[in-house]
Amino acid sequence: MPRYRLLVEYDGRPYSGFQAQATLPSVQGAIEAAVKAFSGQELRIAAAGRTDTGVHATGQVVHVDLERDWPPQTVMNALNAHLTREAVSILDAQVAPEGWHARFSANERRYLYRILNRRAPPALDKGKVWHMKKDLDHEAMHAAAQALVGLHDFTTFRDMHCQAQSPMKTLDVARVRRVGEEIHLDFEARSFLHRQVRSMTGTLVEVGAGRWAPDDVKKALEAKDRRACGPVAPADGLYLVGVGYED
Question: Could you tell me which residue ranges the Pseudouridine synthase I TruA alpha/beta domain spans (predicted)?
Answer without folding.
Answer: 8-104, 144-246
